[in-house]
């Protein structure tokens, strides 16, 4: 490997990290250095792409330790047989970069992943050493997210949880046949076993923290995972079912979806084109329905067409409502929270405001309109003090009426 300076390495390894979507900084414990000790904070304002639950934007240095890899996963641009420029940081270089960027107010945390070099254990040791050095040698109190390696020694993975706010183990593909075909060196049972071990360690850490205040925090922001969408034959129904299983079995904070992106010198088993980005967006909406709107996985899957794919022109909640019109219209002045959350166009905040406010007044259509972006989307599915949709809910052309209108792009618009 040719000798590269730090700037060149950073350009290569930051670009290589862009394919990892699971870069978030939510749910961790609050830390700062206002006591004059240590460095960093996990609760200040940042400048880019990672958001905490309260809306704060936290910027992360997102890089790979190396883009060299001994594995040859077909979908990965950094696979062993790929003809890409390689680079590698040492653990010390990543530590220095993180501290230097923090001191310049560029970042507030680190997201670190890596290709597999030498062996899984060796790579995991390097990742853990970065986090350990930041925490113990430099008292860094900012956010750290480590990508762990499923077949690494469990003790190394445990060490990662002691130093990182969040750990993630990628399942890569939603079905076991897809994983066998596109990443034959990886094992679905091994990946899920590592996730199960991490769940147990996180629960043990929380129990210890409740009993002893001095107990160290263990991955306080939990664990997450990522699935590649569109690289294999898995349908949206398959993906929704897999995500639900992962949430239930392993207590994940998030499942991230990443649309497959065609890569240079790709294997013949890969599709020639990437899936529509809207497909990735619909899967995130489906994920939201399961996590915050009370939809069961089977109900989200019912929103898909007979081929198992979610519609791209309308969101999955509207697709479900159009299929099960017998549940509508819903009286916003009488219905329970579960029913209100099923209404297309109403979000969780709008539903909470309706429930709080209707104790003091009866909602009219204008009142509901103030809580939603598009009252036209809501009208067919609700009853208010001054509105009843009569036959509108059952119209055969209701989907056409509610689907976003297609716009012809203009060639010479700026």
Give an overview of the whole structure.
The protein is 38% helix and 9% strand. With 414 residues, the protein is an alpha/beta fold. It has two domains: 6-275, Aldolase class I (TIM Barrel); 324-402, Orthogonal Bundle (DNA polymerase, domain 1). α3 (120-137) packs parallel to α4 and α7 (236-250) packs across α8 (277-292). The two termini are 44 Å apart. Mean pLDDT is 87; it is low at 42-48.
Strand content: 5-15%
Share of helix among residues?
25-40%
Number of strands: 10
Strand order of the largest sheet: 3-4-5-6-7-8
Report the principal-axis shape. Answer: globular
CATH superfamily of the largest domain: Aldolase class I
* CATH topology term of the largest domain: TIM Barrel
Straight-line distance between termini: 44 Å
User: H/E series, N to C?
Assistant: HEEEHEHEHEHHEHEHHHEHHHHEH
Structural class assignment: alpha/beta
Total domains, how many?
2
Stretches where pLDDT is under 50 for at least 5 consecutive residues are: 42-48
CATH architecture of the largest domain: Alpha-Beta Barrel
Major β-sheet, in short? 6 strands, parallel
The total count of helices amounts to 15
Pfam families: Radical_SAM
Keywords: Iron, Iron-sulfur, Metal-binding, S-adenosyl-L-methionine
Cofactor: [4Fe-4S] cluster
Organism: Sphingomonas arvum
């Amino acid at each position: 490997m040719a000798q590269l300076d730090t700037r060149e390495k950073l350009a290569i390894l930051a670009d290589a990290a862009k394919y990892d979507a699971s870069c978030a900084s939510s749910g961790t414990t609050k830390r700062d250095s206002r006591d004059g000790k240590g460095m960093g904070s996990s609760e200040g304002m940042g400048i880019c792409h990672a958001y905490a639950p309260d809306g704060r934007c936290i910027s992360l240095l997102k890089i790979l330790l190396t883009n060299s890899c001994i594995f040859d996963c077909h979908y990965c641009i950094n696979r062993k047989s790929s003809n890409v420029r390689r680079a590698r940081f040492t653990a010390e270089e990543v530590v220095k970069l993180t501290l230097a960027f923090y001191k310049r107010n560029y970042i507030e945390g680190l997201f670190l992943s890596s290709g597999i070099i030498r062996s899984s254990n060796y790579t995991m040791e390097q990742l853990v050493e970065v986090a350990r050095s930041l925490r113990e040698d430099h008292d860094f109190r900012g956010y750290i997210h480590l990508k762990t390696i499923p077949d690494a020694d469990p003790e190394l993975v445990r060490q990662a949880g002691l130093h990182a706010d969040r750990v993630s183990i990628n399942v890569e593909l939603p079905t076991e046949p897809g994983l066998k075909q596109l990443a034959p060196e990886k094992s679905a049972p091994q990946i899920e076993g590592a996730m199960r071990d991490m769940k147990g360690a996180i629960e043990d850490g929380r129990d210890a923290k409740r009993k002893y205040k001095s107990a160290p925090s263990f991955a306080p922001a939990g664990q997450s995972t990522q699935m590649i969408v569109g690289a294999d034959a898995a349908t949206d129904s398959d993906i929704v079912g897999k995500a639900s299983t992962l949430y239930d079995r392993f207590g994940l904070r998030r499942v991230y979806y990443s649309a497959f992106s065609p890569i240079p010198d790709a294997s013949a088993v890969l599709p020639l084109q990437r899936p529509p980005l809207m497909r990735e967006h619909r899967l995130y909406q489906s994920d939201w329905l399961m996590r915050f709107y009370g939809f069961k996985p089977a109900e989200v899957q019912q929103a898909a067409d007979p081929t198992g794919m979610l519609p791209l022109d309308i969101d999955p909640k509207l697709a479900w409502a159009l299929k099960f019109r017998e549940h509508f219209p819903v009286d916003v002045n009488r219905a329970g929270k579960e029913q209100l959350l099923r209404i297309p166009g109403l979000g969780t905040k709008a539903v909470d405001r309706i429930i709080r406010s209707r104790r003091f007044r009866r909602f009219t259509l204008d009142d509901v309109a103030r809580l939603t972006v598009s009252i036209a989307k809501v009208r067919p599915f609700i009853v208010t003090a001054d509105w009843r949709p009569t036959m509108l809910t059952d119209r055969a052309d209701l989907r056409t009426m509610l689907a976003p209108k297609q716009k012809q792009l203009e060639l010479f618009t700026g």
